[in-house]
Design goal:
Order of helices and strands: EEEEEHEEEE
Shape: elongated
Strand content: over 45%
Number of strands: 9
Distance between the termini: 17 Å
Helix content: under 10%
Radius of gyration: 21 Å
């Protein structure tokens, strides 16, 4: 996986275990991960929950947490969806994770 070039190689277990050349990653949705998982500093967000019963405020609870917004990149052994160009040269694209 090469995040800077947005390419990855895929092993096709259903084709005898052959490995593709570099395939371009064309879909990279944004998602949020905890800052400690990402290895980067996140931004602090404050969340407030309000509990009420029939319109009467019972309790309000707040907490802060760090989060990091990042783009998806496939990991080793992730199952991905590929579209291959049918010319036999092995060119194709990684659409996303299954």
């Amino acid at each position: 996986m090469n995040a800077s070039k947005m390419t990855a190689r895929v092993k096709f277990k259903d084709k005898g275990g052959i490995t593709s050349g570099d395939l371009r990653i064309i879909k990279r949705p944004v998602y949020v991960v905890p800052a400690m998982e990402s290895g980067a500093e996140g931004q602090t967000a404050k969340t407030t929950l309000k509990y009420d019963y029939n319109g009467q405020m019972l309790k309000e609870v707040s907490h802060n947490h760090e989060a990091f917004v990042t783009e998806w990149t496939p990991g080793v052994n992730d199952m991905v969806l590929c579209i291959m160009v049918p010319d036999g040269d092995g060119d194709g694209f990684i659409i996303g994770e299954v």
